[in-house]
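Quick question about two entries, pasted in order.
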Amino acid sequence: MKKLLTGVATAAIVIGSMQGAAQAANVPIWIGIGSAAILAAGILGETSDIGDIHVGNGNTDLPLSLTVGAGYYNILNDKGDTSHTDRDDGGAGVGRVELRFNTEFLRIRPFIGIEGTTDSASYIYGGGMLDVRFGDHFILSPNAAVGAYFNGDGREMGSTLEFRTGVEAAWEFDNKMRVGAAFHHISNAGIGDVNPGVEELTFNLSIPLN
């Protein structure tokens, strides 16, 4: 049963990503569905005897971690808002540095970070992540953040204030180091003049600092 729940949660993320590729406007909806499936699997794991699945890190020795990541910005390769005259040409490389704190509030782990693209766009943000542990090492982490976006020579996002939602899948080693991949959607939720949004895929390494 534990394997079944893990498969359901992972499948929701994969299906969401595929749907997003077909219709980028639906990406936030599918991220929400995938996150809900992951959380449901964690809650079911905690309230039954199906196996070692739980939400949050509980009594785990949670470290202060520095996370670095690199990947592709505009992974779905859309050109931006069709009504905007400043449509971009496609994707770019993206790099990220994130500090994840060694505490939780209502099982949510806070973080702050900054990321930048090879088109000189940058995003400074803060938010929280919810670790759902499947056994001792595999972790799925829905997360959300809010921050300030500066487009540089990259995509005009329509607002300085931008929101980021996504999911990270990671493997945690015995020394608390994590390696994984994350898929995120960034948009302004319609508060700007335009809201093209963008999706990014990164591969991450989290290094414990204490």
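Here is the second entry:
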Amino acid sequence: MRPRPHGCMTGPAKTVVCPTNCNEVHTFSQSDVNYIHPSHTNVVNHHTIKNTHFYPHSTSYQNTVNSTNVYGGSFEVPNQRPPFFR
């Protein structure tokens, strides 16, 4: 091959392909996954009715009076005094 003069191109240039330089780039992504955990609260309200019973009681008193008439006989005046008055 003949040397080329400076600044003068004669023929196609030789092309050399070097081995591919591999670069590794790491990317990160995030996914949101919703987990639903249902729960239920049952509120049981308890109500107690307190029934208070009253038994008012009164006491009354009643007095009864019975009257009887007894015949005691006739009144006689003795003619003499009893012996202890003598």
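Reply: The two ends are 208 Å apart (CA to CA). Residues 13 and 25 are 34 Å apart (CA to CA). Hope that helps.
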